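Shipment paperwork, digital attachment
Item: protein structure file
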Amino acid sequence: MNPAKLSTPQSGSKLLKLLTFVMFTMFAMTTDAVGVIIPEIIKTFKLSMTQAGLFHYGPMTAMALAGIFLGFLADKLGRKKTIILGLAIFATSSYLFMVGNSFWFFLSLLVISGAAIGVFRTGALALIGDISRSNQEHTSTMNAVEGFFGVGAIIGPFLVSYLLSQEVEWKWLYVIAATLCVMLILIALVVKYPTSKKAVEEPVSMKQSFRMIKNPYALGFSLAAFFYVTVEAAIYVWMPTLMKDYDGSLVFIAMYALPIFFILRAAGRFLGIWMMVHFQWDQVLAISGFLIFICFGGSILFEPAAVVLLPLTGLFMSVIYPTINSKGMSCFPKPQHGSIAGIILFFTAAGAAAGPLAMGLVSDFFGGQAKSGFVLAALFSLILFAGFLFNFIFKPTAQKLAQMNESDYQQ
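Attachment content:
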């Protein structure tokens, strides 16, 4: 198989990277602000934790389905058309928040926006492969992209908190995101994208994407993404609820626990750009997985410590998801990066929906105590660590990654 031939000016590559960075910042503003919005909709619509969690489960499920059913569009239609299509749908659904005021109307719009994110995100992730010149550069760029996602995750909750403090409805967050989205569409229309010659004989299709799930590399990295996101979502969905009645000596930390988590996660991802150059990626994941499990386990055994340990996980989680994404995609030829990105996104969003949902159900079963759900999250973190430890000891992907780096990235 001949590698795909890609070409784009260096200045064009920089502009495409910047576009991708801002794109991830924009949609993170909405997805990761849900933990701050949930207490408001519980109060407004008189909902249980499980019901209110639909604000998170709904769009995550839609994103998962878009990833698995529509991920191939990035390979079939091209990166540019796929990105613009997804952004246009996202902007439209976000503006519509201002024309209604019911729980089910808002939820419907969130489901549509989740599907739109699934479309433009797979296009953007595939684009990263096109403009990367090596496996290592791909991983570093992915950490930078997710770092900007982390910045958006800080901005979103801050904006919601500020709007609420000014007695402005939280749904204005979506109007702000939609306006930024329109600007991104205008930029995407004029930016020159790399041209590629497809290196796969079989036509790109949904059927081909489903067959890729059986590939051990696709399945392995996808499962890693699933369990990672169940752990991460436990923090940004339910930690604010866990901390809301805290009255100990660290009340300031409890009040800003979620922003602290997001700041540490974003900072760690930018640090990850350097770490992936100087350390083995599988070693970094194994150590990070162990520290996350210690933090969750310590929060269960020593409940007062949760106020420090749970936000601290942001630092240890930082490099995990971008590295999983990068290495998973790098096990496949560039012309298939859209499809594999969609598969990983499916498992990512499925974990983001299933994990908090399971935690909400467990918490409701034990009398609405959020701590009960975090026991389940600690179990998820143990499974994640076990997988990373297996990967570090046996190195099942080392040969494949070396092969693809030689054949697909060397220009």
